[in-house]
Design brief:
The strands form 3 sheets. The chain has an 8-stranded parallel beta barrel. A 5-stranded mixed sheet has the order 1-2-4-3-5, covered by helices on one side. The relative contact order is 0.08. The N and C termini lie far apart (about 65 Å). It has 3 domains: about 130 residues, Chitobiase, domain 2; about 325 residues, Alpha-Beta Barrel (TIM Barrel); about 150 residues, Alpha-glucuronidase, C-terminal domain (Alpha-d-glucuronidase, C-terminal Domain), CATH 3.90.1330.10. Helix content is about 40%, strand content about 10%. With about 700 residues, it is of the alpha/beta class. The structure holds beta-D-glucopyranuronic acid (BDP).
């Protein structure tokens, strides 16, 4: 009897702990969940073929990590441990190095194949094998038939880098998922296991570089103490094919060694950087190079010494070149001149420098000419600097897209920019071709994303927005991938395998970016967010420390109409684009509606292609955005409980409710404010706005209180 009682208690505990395990999905495992496959046929087909793993290549940190990942992944997916075997057998996963020059023409590329007895992962380098292992695991995580495994894959862009805006004091600039990932105080002695999971996640999507600190950089990172901390991270990341880079403060020689100046043409300064770089490479032998924000938003730079951006970049490039390091020099610069158009400033500064940079300098350009707005036309520098390798900078962290509250699938924003045609060398000169080097024949190619990671248990603050980290990696590897396919991959690996749920979540994600643009900044509006609260609206902001930090500078609302005239009759920033674009976008009747108010000041009563006036079209888009936010919440709430882990479900549901509320807030604030200029009524088919503009202004004021 007693014995039975214990057995009963034991079973209860077991049930309880299994339930706990199942319901305790806190999002930490990202898309590398490796939960057991519940489709019996697929499981059987995999288990029938995968009996052991064999590495037919020398052992190395990369290969050991590939094996470890396969073992972990297979154990989870198949529910049984798969041994590593030295001998060749049939029914095995084989990792093989093959000579370069054959089917795999890229050192990071790989080939997967299946012939009923063996699953082969082949590559020409250990890095390729690691990517192949992750490629295979992705296939299995998606429960795809082995018959569909055969594939040869290679990245189209060589440097695929995360930019962390993390500070030594633990905060993250524009970070919405807790504090920094890097425990600086504990490093280098304590190496948190989270760093390994971070590296695994990156390697699984092909990210091969990380800049660990903020572009508004502390000079401290170049001090020996910090270099050893960074070296501990670099050592771990190396085993996952990830190079480590640092953001530098241009005046570091004055801070760290008391030099009188940081003038890039001063021999003492140049020597300082050479010595510093030599020291870095002694400590971090595979160090990647520097990311530099100079003469931008108050950061120091070469112009403080009457030198150019090229002078500054070249000095650093010279120090890094003997070690194979690179400089990523940011083009995000704009002077505090109220008469300038900010959208033209970085072009005007950098275009004349084309050809002036050393071979190991890349100019890193934000996707649009202002600053990571919900939607911007592509930056006019793309295509305009043929002699300089340009690197793309996207922002994965959602500074202006609802931060970690709104679920906005950014892959569609990334894709829209990458597919934009610059016409720089004729039709088809897409931004993607500028970035992948094919347009102007560059070997040095790169893409960066400002990370959305932090110390939050689920890494990104919003489980749904893990998809933005994921899709950034996937699109960096291959910009031609379809975003809906990437969404499906992520959903299956992260949320559910239930077909109705997949298609509903896919729909929700695919519509989320357009919806966010609609409820925040439709028709080409931009930069009308709250001062210091970039998640909320403040179109009424007219005064700030700089004119180009206000909203009025950008929307230019008046009694006649709305929008920034950037045509020939205005700032003519449109003139920076190719002739074909100027012709199309210069005509308010031909420009895609999504850029209308970016380039034109349009009368409130002008008839637009959608058959309504500007005012009516504006209302229509704001309401559409809100109704999509409402629909997303309803879609989520209609999911069957069995299709989603309860903890994940609840956390996303809460976020979607808040997103819906904030979407409404944006719509009300913007329409009520613009109405003070248009003097027109919101068309009667839409629900009435209940609150007053004054209430909404007060709400924003409260948000802005410290
Ligand atoms: C802006 C951010 C600011 C960054 C800056 C940059 O508001 O915090 O430092 O971009 O990219 O979007 O340097």
């Amino acid at each position: 009897m007693m014995k039975h009682k214990y057995i009963f208690l034991g079973s209860l505990l077991l049930i309880f702990s299994t339930t706990l395990h199942v319901s305790a999905d806190d999002g930490y495992r990202l898309w590398l969940k490796y939960d057991k496959i519940t489709d019996a046929a697929i499981l059987k087909s995999y288990s029938g073929v995968i009996k052991s793993i064999s590495l037919q290549a020398p052992s190395s940190a990369l290969n050991d990590n590939a094996l470890k990942e396969l073992k972990t992944g297979l154990h989870g997916l198949l529910g049984s441990s798969i041994p590593i075997s030295a001998a060749s057998r049939s029914k095995q996963i084989v990792l093989q190095l093959i000579p370069p020059g054959g089917v795999i023409d890229h050192e990071e590329g790989y080939r997967l194949s299946y012939d009923k007895k063996l699953i082969r992962i082949q590559a020409t380098t250990d890095r390729g094998l690691l990517y192949g292992a992750f490629g295979l695991l992705r296939h299995l995580q998606m429960w795809l038939p082995l018959e569909q495994l055969d594939q040869t894959r290679a990245p189209k862009i060589n440097l695929r880098i995360l930019n962390h805006w993390d500070n030594p004091n633990g905060t993250i600039e524009r970070g919405y998922a807790g504090s920094t990932l890097w425990k600086w105080a504990d490093l280098p002695d304590c190496v948190d296991e989270r760093y390994t999971d971070y590296a695994r996640a990156n390697a699984s999507i092909g990210i091969n570089g990380t800049v660990v600190n903020n572009v508004n950089a502390s000079a401290r990172f170049l001090d020996k103490e910090y270099l050893y901390k960074v070296a501990a991270l670099a050592k771990l990341f190396r085993g996952y094919g990830i190079k480590t880079y640092l953001s530098i403060r241009f005046t570091a020689p004055t801070y760290l060694s008391g030099l009188k100046s940081a003038d890039p043409l001063d021999p003492a300064v140049r020597q300082w950087w050479k010595d510093k770089v030599d020291e870095i490479y002694q400590i971090i032998p595979d160090f990647g190079g520097f990311l530099v924000k100079a003469n931008s938003e108050g950061e120091p730079g070469p112009q403080d010494y009457n030198r150019t951006h090229a002078d500054g970049a070249n000095m650093l490039a010279e120090a890094l070149a003997p070690h194979g390091g690179i400089v990523m020099w940011r083009a995000f610069v704009y002077k505090a001149d109220p008469n300038n158009d900010r959208a033209a400033e970085s072009y005007n500064e950098f275009k004349p420098l084309d050809g002036a940079f050393k071979a190991n300098v890349m100019v890193q350009v934000k996707n649009g000419p202002i600053d990571f707005q919900p939607r911007e036309p592509f930056h006019p520098l793309f295509g305009a600097m043929p002699q300089t390798p340009l690197m793309m900078e996207f922002q994965i962290t959602q500074e202006y897209l609802g931060q970690s509250t709104h679920w906005v699938y950014l892959a569609n924003l990334f894709k829209e920019v990458l597919e934009s045609d610059t016409y720089a060398r004729g039709p088809g000169s897409t931004v993607a071709k500028v970035i992948d080097g094919s347009l102007d024949h560059h070997q040095l190619t790169g893409i960066a994303g400002v990370a959305n990671t932090g110390s939050d248990r689920n890494w990104c603050g919003h489980i749904g927005n893990q998809a933005n980290w994921y899709s950034f990696g996937r699109l960096s590897w291959d910009p031609s991938l379809a975003t809906t396919v990437i969404a499906d991959e992520w959903i299956k690996m992260t949320l559910t395998h239930q077909p109705t749920a997949i298609s509903m979540i896919n729909d929700l994600m695919m519509k989320s970016h357009e919806a966010c643009v609609d409820y925040m900044t439709p028709l080409g509006l931009h930069h009308i967010m709250g001062e210091s609260i970039h998640f909320g609206p403040q179109p009424w902001l007219e005064k700030s420390r700089r004119a180009d930090w206000t909203s009025a500078y950008y929307h230019r609302a008046d009694s006649v109409g709305l929008g920034f005239d950037r045509t020939i009759t205005g700032s003519n920033a449109l003139g920076l684009y190719a002739k074909e674009i100027q012709q199309r976008w210069g005509d308010p009747d031909k420009i895609p509606l999504q850029y209308l108010l970016w380039f034109h000041h349009v009368a409130w009563d002008k008839q637009l292609p959608e058959g309504k006036t500007l005012w009516e079209t504006l209302c229509a888009h704001y309401y559409k955005g809100v109704s999509q936010a409402t629909k997303a919440l309803q879609q989520w709430q209609s999911l069957k409980p069995s299709s989603i882990d309860p903890e994940v479900y609840a956390s996303i549901e809460g976020k979607l409710k808040r997103q819906q509320w904030e979407a409404e807030w944006w719509k009300d604030a913007c329409l009520l404010y613009f109405q003070t200029y248009s003097k027109m009524d919101v068309p009667s088919q839409y629900p009435k706005i209940i609150r007053s503009l004054e209430e909404l202004k007060e709400l924003v004021r409260l948000y802005q209180m410290r």
